[in-house]
Specification:
Order of helices and strands: EEEEEEHEEEHEEEEHEHEHH
Shape: globular
Largest sheet: 6 strands, mixed
Helix content: 10-25%
Structural class: alpha+beta
Number of strands: 15
Number of helices: 6
Distance between the termini: 19 Å
Strand content: 15-25%
Length: 334
Amino acid sequence: MGAITDVSGIRVGQAERVGEGWLTGTTVVLAPPEGAVAGVDVRGGGPGTRETDLLDPRNLVERVHAVVLSGGSALGLAAADGVAQRLLRDGVGYPMGGPGEVVPIVPGAVIYDLGRGGTFSHHPDAAFGEAAYDAAGTEVEEGNRGAGTGARAGGLKGGVGTASTVMPDGATVGALVVVNAIGSCVDPSTGELWAARHCRHGDLPPLRRPDEAELLAAKVEAAAQDTLRRPPLATTLAVIATDATLTKAQCAKVSGLGHDGLARAINPVHTMFDGDTVFTLATCAGEAPDPFAFHALLEAAGTCVTRAVARAMVAAGSTHEIRSYRDAFPSAFD
């Protein structure tokens, strides 16, 4: 199925807490020690972000050392402090002088999941970031993990998903998504996942169109929640990574096409109540693409994001009275 960690040098760590009023977590995407060239595209109307201005191609810093995705709304931005402290301890960061004199560059963004575990004030802090950093590796667990622990999408359980692909020129592209949207990932006329038609063989278990009775029940439940007329706060986040050599401006462009991937999988997307944000990391271990290869990379990045959304929705499990897609549409699973 592939994962963002198929890009050599990229690692992912996750930490979460569930129970006793908690339902939230943090996901960190770590770059290689030398960092990765990065870009960002923020399109939601209610973003919660950290250090995104430095990713503007006009600004000084070229490389970042991690991207932190977290629950907790603006309160959850504190998780990035824990990652920054761990990087500082390990001597990883922007060099400022002698050995160990570095400043870790750690952009981040948050989803809104406050109160979903029962206690509104429970949110990730620096300790969540430290735990996610310490857990980092090449295996990426999907569904109710990390920043996806308390995620919800269109009234169903959201979560973390990932996907990757290898380009004809040998470059690898991967994406990790935290699906937490006001909009729905489900086609209301059929009950099918919008993103499923864009997936590859092996991305998902065999799926079929759900039974009409389940579709009707889902429509009744959605009407009762009334999330479109009175939407809660939300936000979907993504990180795209590649080993191709890209500039900051090119990374920003990749992030823009990542939003196209979200738009194929979630409807509506980029609302005033979502803070949808997409980061891109380029490790620059491979060659710089020519314009035609870059065009192909853009297309692949958007598709990886779409596939990752589908995987997140299928992997998510029901919890705290938030039903998963699997439990809402059991007949969809062959």
